[in-house]
Amino acid sequence: MVRIEVEALTKRYGYGRARGLPALDGVSFSYEGSGAIGYLGPNGAGKTTTLKLLTGLLRPTAGVARIDGVDVRVHPKRAMADVGAVIETPEPYPSQTVAESIEMVSEFRGGKTRNIAREIGDLHEKLDLPPLDQRTGRLSKGQRQRVVIAAALIRNPGAIILDEPTNGLDPKERILIRNLLSELKKDHLILMSSHLMQEVTEICDQVIFINQGKLLLRDTVENVATRFQSRAVDVEFAEPLPLERLAKLGSLIRTVTPLSDRRYRFAFDGSVSTRAEILTNCVGIAPVVTYESASLALEDAYLSLMQANGNNHPAS
Amino acid sequence: MDLAQLPSDFAQWRTAFARQWRFYLRTSRFLGLLLFVLIVVVAFTAVSIYQHDSGASGADYMYGAAGELGTFGIIIGAFIGGDAIAMDFGSGTGYFMLVLPVKRLVLLLGRFAAAFVTSLILIVVFFCVPLLGGIYFWGVAGIPWLGFGESVLLAALYALAVLSTAFFFSALFRTPAVSMVATILILFLGFVIVDAVVGTSLGYEPWFSLLYAGSVIGLPLVAQPHHTVMTTHIGAGRTITTHTWFPYIWEGVVILVAYFVIFLVISAVIYQYKETKG
What we know:
The complex is a heterodimer of chains A (316) and B (278).
Chain A lengths: L1 E10 L12 E10 L1 E6 L6 H8 L7 E6 L2 E2 L4 H4 L3 E4 L11 H11 L4 H15 L13 H13 L5 E5 L7 H14 L4 E5 L3 H7 L2 E6 L2 E7 H7 L4 E6 L17 E4 L4 E5 L4 H14 L2 E6 L3 H12 L8
Parallel strand pairs in A: 3-8, 3-9, 6-7, 7-8
Antiparallel strand pairs in A: 1-2, 1-4, 4-5, 9-10, 11-13, 11-14, 12-13
Helix pairs in contact in A: 3-4, 3-5, 4-5, 8-10
Chain B lengths: L8 H18 L1 H26 L4 H10 L1 H13 L5 H4 L2 H5 L6 H35 L6 H28 L3 H26 L8 H5 L12 E9 L2 E8 L3 H25 L5
Antiparallel strand pairs in B: 1-2
Helix pairs in contact in B: 1-7, 2-4, 2-7, 3-7, 4-7, 4-8, 4-9, 7-8, 8-9, 8-11
């Protein structure tokens, strides 16, 4: 089982007087075993910087990043032995074919020639890769992203570090990657940054919120969802419903926003008991088809944390 | 998967070398250089018909070919190695390669070996056509084989030195295209100007110049004086003095080895510590 650990990790860009504010400021966390960790924050929060420090692409100003107890800066080969990573927008050699790009990575990782074709075949199927004899320089962004993800997964590394893995992919490709990661997290440790709350909610078990280089919150998705419970619910009734019939909800709700003739958004105090009472009362008024938070819990958590942290322009 | 399953540094070097070499052979710049070299040497061989008729020896003829390699070697080296390191920091290649469990030094040495072998192919082509021409005009006995062999070895050493220097400039820049253009300008024009000013005009031996050291390639074929001074009268009692310098062979070898070692070490250090920020 792989262990990913960062300890008081700090990164400042520039030198001397040009040295600016820390892009990353004393961030610490550690994970071991399997599961998926979502790394969230607005643009410039320090997400990619952390992942680059973890993969040896950057050198820390202070602190240490370790994988399986090995300092990435001191022994990058040993540290990255069991890690597959996709950071920013990797590009294989443009003149290499899809198969050659993945083969090369496999060879660097010790893949045996007799097994490489089978391993690539598996990934080809799982990731719906473009034709293996196609030059990577001629691939679309989405195709290339799937190829580099395949290269990161070849030889089945225990830890997978991904920087916005579905960035630039179309909806079908996103679902493909999302399903693959959901499957992989059962026996791999996945650390992924993302802007997409839906994606993180669906894939990740744990989340880390970061802003202005500082770690704001680290918890399970479940705990975060409970803590930052949505303060609005969307209710869809089975039949069109005039607004007057909702008077029965009385003081349980603060405001009502009609979304359609059958669908309404109710703002309330956010407590679990009120949420349950609203549902009970709604069922008493008319059959309810759907009853759901007006926004994702992680989205609420994200917005609350960013506002509390003085960031009024959280990334979408 | 753990470290025990990872290949040795040497096995990874072989992978880096083989993949990079394949990459070089597929690039249009290699095909362009091959065409360029072929045009130059075929033209040279054609002109040598005149040399043959004028009574020059096979050694003189071969010296003419080898002597040109100083300039063409720089063009070859700059085009092949001019973006070898910058490609990892100016494009997404670094994000693909530098997160792998491979030491950067191993990647660098693999690339260097691939660049060297690619350059060597072009150098061999550069020598082969004139050699065939020489055999045709002067016969096998008319070719100074020992000197020719030494000349080829010196050309290989020169390629190592030029590539090392090109790798160094490539390590300084982040954009592959800028890196390549800068390398060509610095190595090609820079050394020509320095040699002309310091060596030819001021009369100091340009021992620090790569291009000067490169002129050693033809010397096993035809020996040249180390220093020649020529005074030309330009009228009204005024004269211009110009100096021509050729390195001793041992001196040229020392300069080339120094370029090769020093710049390769500096390149490796820069590559090791360079961050992928873009």
